[in-house]
Amino acid sequence: MFAGLYLARAGARPLILERGAAVEERAAAVERYWQGGPLDENASVQFGEGGAGTFSDGKLTTRIGDPRCGFVLREFAAHGAPEDVMIRAKPHVGTDRLREVVKKIRQEILSLGGEVRFLTKAEDFEIAEGNIHAVIVSGERIPARQVILAAGHSARETFAMLKSKPLLMEAKPFSAGFRIEHLRADIDRAQYGEFAGHPALGAADYQLSAQIGGRCAYTFCMCPGGFVVPAENEEETIVTNGMSMHARNGMNSNAALVCSLSAEDFGGDPFRAMAFQEKTERLAFALGKGKAPAETVGAFLSGEKSGFGRVMPTYSRGVAETDLTALYPEEMTSVLRAGIHAFHNRIRCFDDPEAVLTGPETRTSSPVRIVRDGESLEAVGAAGLYPCGEGAGYAGGIMSAAADGLRCAEKVLEALMK
Asked: What is the pTM for the complete model shown?
């Protein structure tokens, strides 16, 4: 979206091909699914206008230190995000506000001569003699000398199609685990002490990590006062994610609790890594008999079922109390258990036996990197094709994805002016 905005302002009239639905239709389809309706694979938490970030806490934090981040924050504020994103140390937008921001960015792109085609999946790329020549959509050939490929971290069919192309693709590190939920009031007390509940503070967050042998256990995408949401985009799979509204006033707070996985775990093969994700997601569906597998932290640590107590799961399509050790290899399970114990030293309620684990959390980031030239940002083997953002392996959140979109757009303009 930021690549499109940048190019539109430069007068380049970009054509944006979006495999999913516009954010208005997408939000309605996702809400129907969360309430028990059918899954629309092209209007899901993973696919549709705004990408996976649209259904999240909308955190605008990053570690990349790119000066483009200032531009991104200003544009978020200009398109409907709270103005305090410009000054807060940990700015967030919230899913409810993000939807309006996404719509307004699209409207500006259109007003400047850009075009957006929804429900238009890139089915093939015509690459010959080391150059991109066209994109194929629904049998239509769209000639193109510059193509930014920002497919997102869940576009497995697109990655499979690219396997036959003269591109260099490699596995990259990612992580997998569960969502962990505590009562928001407990996290607030653990973080704020006697000041918990003060209106100036809001819901407390945290970010935790521990080295466990050769792996890392850590928390990711923490959603204060948020919900664990169904995030699958394929039938007979279970995928979880976290989401907060701007107010962050839900009963629970949740985060991804994950174990690091390396490229070497899969022999450097990105397709083996993707197969691991899919196998886990299908196993979760089977274990939960169509519901999300879940259990208390106490049961996960002790192996004895205990039922849910003070902390009730927020996953809207229902959970099934399940032995979560069946979901991952023993090594991963051991790392996650050790992480819970280690994090108790930082947040005293973290190992609360009544806290809830819901799985699986498998889409922390893309397991794939499409290798690109460090200077031109073009894909190795296909000049004019710019792998971009999280799906291509060059970002890890809203801010870094936006900044990478801007970098790629700058390179496109340079190529157009040659």
From this structure: 0.94
Sign of the four-CA dihedral 55, 232, 156, 215: positive
Rg (CA), the chain: 21
Write out residues in the chain with pLDDT < 50, as ranges: none
Where do you find CATH 3.50.50.60 in the chain? 2-167+370-416
CA 12/CA 145 separation, integer angstroms: 13
pLDDT at 418: 82
Tens of pLDDT along 204-215?
Answer: 999 999 999 999
Helices marked H in 269-325: 270-287, 297-302
Residue 64 has what pLDDT? Answer: 87
Q: How far is CA 220 from the centre of its chain?
A: 10
Who's near 284: CB < 8 A, 6+ residues apart?
237, 238, 239, 292, 293, 327, 359, 360
Residue 251, pLDDT score: 97
Closest by CA position to 112, among listed 220, 238, 14, 196: 14
DSSP 221-250: EEETT-EEEE---STT---EEEE--TT---
CB 416 within 8 A of CB 146: yes
**Contact present, 208 and 346 (Cβ < 8 Å):** yes
pLDDT for residue 213 = 94
What per-residue string of b and e applies to 19-58 under the rule 16 or more CB within 10 Å gives b?
bbbbbebbbebbeebbeeeebbebbbbbbbbbbbbbbbbb
Q: What is the pLDDT of residues 237-261, one digit of tens each?
A: 999 999 999 999 999 999 999 999 9
**Looking at residue 160, what is its pLDDT?**
96
CB 319 within 8 A of CB 311: no
Q: Quick one: how far is CA 8 from the chain centroid?
A: 26
**Cα separation of 107 and 416, whole Å?**
24
CATH of domain 2-167+370-416: 3.50.50.60
CA distance 119 to 328: 35
Single out the residue of 98, 78, 91 nearest to residue 26, CA to CA: 98
